[in-house]
Amino acid sequence: MSRPKNPHGPSTRAVHGAEREGRPRVADALTTPIVQSSTYWFRDTQEVIAYQEGRHASYEYGRYGNPTSRTAEEKIRILEGGEECLLTASGMSAVTTMLLQLIPENGHLITTSDCYRRTRQFIGTLLPKMGIEATVIDPSDLNQLEAALRDDTSLFFSEAPTNPYLRVLDIQRASELCHVRNALVVIDSTFATPVNLQPLNFGADLVLHSATKYFSGHNDVMAGCLIGRKELIDPIRQLHGVMGAVIDPHAAYLVLRGLKTLALRVERCNQNAQAVANFLEQHGGVETVHYPGLESHPDHENAAKQMSGYGGVVSFEIPGGLEAASKFIDSLRIPYIAPSLGGVESLVEQPTVMSYWDQTPEQRAAYGIRDNLVRYSCGIEDTDDLLTDIKQAL
Ligand SMILES: Cc1ncc(COP(=O)(O)O)c(C=O)c1O
Question: How far is the CA of 341 from the centre of ligand 1 (A)?
Answer without folding.
Answer: 9
